[in-house]
Write a structure and sequence with these properties.
By secondary structure, the protein is an alpha+beta fold. The chain has one domain: YcgL domain (NE1680-like fold), CATH 3.10.510. It contains 3 helices and 4 strands; from the N terminus they run ββαβαβα. The protein has helices at residues 29-35, 57-67, 80-90, and strands at 2-7, 15-18, 39-45, 69-72. Residues 1-85 form the YcgL domain. This is YcgL domain-containing protein Q3O60_00485. It comes from Alkalimonas collagenimarina.
Length: 92
Amino acid sequence: MLCTVYKSPKKEHTYLFIKRRDDFASVPESLLQTFGTPVLVTILDLNRRTSLAQSDLTKVRAALDEQGYYLQLPPPVDDLLAQNKAFLQQHS
């Protein structure tokens, strides 16, 4: 299964996977507006991959089959302040 990966010019570390290059018909218009004008990153053959860097390969394949696209969001930012408070409470 080939897919094309685009990055968002508006949202750092946000990627859109679609089945065919420049075919955004399956992507909701509201998502495209938030995403911005997609910037081509690469074309991947998912059948030749055993994993992806930031996403679950099985979930990507399923989303492409079911809805025609997969949106990869950046990992959540660690709340360092909360971690520090918890650490201080445990050691006080």
